[in-house]
């Protein structure tokens, strides 16, 4: 899918997004960004989602309202009416019949092509181990169930032996591990241990024999660790650079709990995903992510050597190896799109602010969808008061 248009869905009055290699969605809370990316997955992976739900015993096809029942299962409890009779969804300009999404025909592919890391990921490891698909309440959204179950499979099949989970040389390049360690784990190791015949993920501070349970970690470590495990899934070891069928990665609010330097480290991981051939969609409230996108867009116009050198400094990479240099070089050739989910009296409309030009006459573009405009307004107010 290259373009998704949505009319009259939940809070969204008119949403229109053309996707680049990296697409960033910004906007205030409850502006429909999460619904939009979940809708993207529902359309792309209709067959895989139906297969999952049927395998776990769900039946939504024999009620009075097929689409309503599906929305309750997929988007979560309370969202069964998010699609109304007046709702229109267009994929690459063609109208989508959501009845066929809710009940795809037998020839629909069951391969999963979209990997969604949800905003609620902190709940996945609450007891130190990922919950299974059926470990959640009926009203919990499919995206959280699916992500949790994939992490469970990863832990059982790929990382199931006791020992370090981070740092783990087979999963990330050395510079990426160092960046994540310096900004998030600060010398601590993520380990898998068995306590009372039950496995759990723990954090061991440097120089300590004691293990900290999940709820004793910092907020940023709790938020980032499920995301890290999701990246492990996307970056398989050995000779494979990516999961065969997956082509799009969606990450909701990756900045939660993270210091700006840790967000920069995350940005480097996003460039690794792009270099591996994934298309990435982010929803965010962080101006740091837009700082990075703006910088890369600007640097794409200079010579490759100068661009790579500047990115090396942006990401604080002292002596990057050639594979990391290749990641930076590839980043300068990608297409970056940014959209603002703008709340109006009639509902939320999207606006293309991809240029991120701080000198643009359009304040939505100059203010980066409100993410930088607030700081600028405060500075102006204070400056006026001080000058009086």
TrEMBL record:
<dbReference type="InterPro" id="IPR003959">
    <property type="entry name" value="ATPase_AAA_core"/>
</dbReference>
<dbReference type="InterPro" id="IPR027417">
    <property type="entry name" value="P-loop_NTPase"/>
</dbReference>
<dbReference type="Pfam" id="PF13304">
    <property type="entry name" value="AAA_21"/>
</dbReference>
<dbReference type="GO" id="GO:0016887">
    <property type="term" value="F:ATP hydrolysis activity"/>
</dbReference>
<dbReference type="GO" id="GO:0005524">
    <property type="term" value="F:ATP binding"/>
</dbReference>
<protein>
    <recommendedName>
        <fullName>ATPase AAA-type core domain-containing protein</fullName>
    </recommendedName>
</protein>
<feature type="domain" description="ATPase AAA-type core">
    <location>
        <begin position="194"/>
        <end position="291"/>
    </location>
</feature>
């Amino acid at each position: 899918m290259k373009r998704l248009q949505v009319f009259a869905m939940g809070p969204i009055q008119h949403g229109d997004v053309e996707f680049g290699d990296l697409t960033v969605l910004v906007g205030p809370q409850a502006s429909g960004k999460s619904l939009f990316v979940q809708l993207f997955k529902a359309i792309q992976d209709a067959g895989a989602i139906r297969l999952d739900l049927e395998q776990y015993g769900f039946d939504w096809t024999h009620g009075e309202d097929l689409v309503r029942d599906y929305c309750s299962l997929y988007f979560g409890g309370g969202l069964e009416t998010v699609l109304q009779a007046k709702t229109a969804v267009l994929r690459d300009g063609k109208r989508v019949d959501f009845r066929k999404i809710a009940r795809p025909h037998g020839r629909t592919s069951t391969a999963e092509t979209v990997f969604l890391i949800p905003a609620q990921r902190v709940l996945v490891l609450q007891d130190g181990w990922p919950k299974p698909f059926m470990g959640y309440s009926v009203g919990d959204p499919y995206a959280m169930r699916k992500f949790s179950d994939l992490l469970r499979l990863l832990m059982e099949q790929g990382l199931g032996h006791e020992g370090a989970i981070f740092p783990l040389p087979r999963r990330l390049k050395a510079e990426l591990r160092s960046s994540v360690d310096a900004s998030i784990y600060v010398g601590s190791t993520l380990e898998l241990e068995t306590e009372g015949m039950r496995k759990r993920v723990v954090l061991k501070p440097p120089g300590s024999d004691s293990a900290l349970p999940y709820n004793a970690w910092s907020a940023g470590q709790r938020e980032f660790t499920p995301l890290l495990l999701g990246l492990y899934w996307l970056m398989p070891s050995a000779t494979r650079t990516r999961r065969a069928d997956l082509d799009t990665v969606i990450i909701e609010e990756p900045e939660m709990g993270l210091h700006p330097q840790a967000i920069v480290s995350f940005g480097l991981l996003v460039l690794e995903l792009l270099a591996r051939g994934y298309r990435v969609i982010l929803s965010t409230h962080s101006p740091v992510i837009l700082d990075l996108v703006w910088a890369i867009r600007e640097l794409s116009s200079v010579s490759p050597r100068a661009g790579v050198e500047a990115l090396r400094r942006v990401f604080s990479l002292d002596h990057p190896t050639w594979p990391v240099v290749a990641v930076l070089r590839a980043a300068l050739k990608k297409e970056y799109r940014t959209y603002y989910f703008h709340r109006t009296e009639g509902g939320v409309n999207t606006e293309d602010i991809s240029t991120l030009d701080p000198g643009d006459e359009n304040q939505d573009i100059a203010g980066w969808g409100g993410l930088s405009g607030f700081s600028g307004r405060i500075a102006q107010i204070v400056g006026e008061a001080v000058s009086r």
